[in-house]
Specification:
Blueprint lengths: L2 E2 H7 L10 E6 L21 H13 L6 E4 L3 H13 L5 E3 L18 H14 L13 H17 L4 E6 L1 H13 L6 H6 L10 E8 L2 E6 L6
Helix pairs in contact: 1-2, 2-3, 5-6
Length: about 220
């Protein structure tokens, strides 16, 4: 299962960085959408009170000052990073295009809940067409994958060694699948069929290293065979 900060608290464990290039990918805290509330604009979906508390816990448990903190442009990742950044105001921060895979059109899903969107979600994945877009301001799987691969390449090229990335569930799944398979040609069906096998609860993390041109996953280990 996904590596969860709540289990770290129970075990009194602390996160530290030791590798040449060491990256922690952290999913945002509980959002209004995660809590089942109606939402409209994906960019402005905020954390709930529970999500804010989760973000505070994350900040308390990270016992390292990284060279760089990366966030998406979506407010929920920035709110999750905020308590940690307040502890370390001098840390370099950047906003990258690692926002969530919004495959449904926000305009067509205005003021709906996750439960109400389930039929549209099922239809999208059942079609499984790489270049299909649901409607205005939605993204195809092909465009999503290209965006994620570009971000991985960017992580490889930057000079910073210890990095924390505050991201989203599908983004973390796509990155993990690439690290496991080493295959840039992961198709939509493969991604879809492994969604449930890569659990990414709120504030879950995974850790990876990049050394001598090779990515290695450290924890947790998901078996996709």
């Amino acid at each position: 299962m996904a590596y969860d900060f709540s289990s770290l608290a129970e075990d009194n464990q602390i996160i530290n960085c030791y590798f040449m290039k060491n990256i922690f990918f952290i999913r945002h805290g509980e959002s209004e959408a995660n809590a089942g509330l109606p939402t409209s604009d994906p960019t402005s979906i905020a954390l709930t009170a529970k999500g804010i508390e989760q973000a505070k816990l994350v900040s308390e448990l990270i016992d390292v000052e990284p060279d760089l903190v990366v966030m998406s442009s979506y407010i929920r990742t920035q709110q999750t990073a905020e308590p940690f950044l307040k502890k370390h105001p001098g840390i370099k921060t950047e906003v990258w295009p690692i926002h969530e895979f919004d495959f449904l059109s926000p305009k067509e899903c205005m003021n709906t809940t996750v439960e109400q969107r389930k039929p549209w979600v099922k239809s999208f994945w059942d079609q499984c067409e790489t270049d299909y877009t649901h409607g205005e301001d939605s993204e195809s799987f092909g465009d999503f994958k290209s965006r994620v691969l570009a971000s991985i390449k960017r992580l490889e090229d930057i000079e910073e060694e210890n990095i924390i990335v505050f991201a989203h569930g599908h983004v973390m799944r796509a990155i993990w699948q690439f690290f496991i398979t080493k295959d840039e040609n992961i198709d939509m069906a493969y991604f879809r069929d492994n969604i449930s096998r890569l659990p990414v609860p709120n504030t879950a993390i995974f850790r990876a290293t990049f050394d001598n041109g090779t990515w290695a996953t450290v924890e947790p280990n998901f078996n996709l065979n």
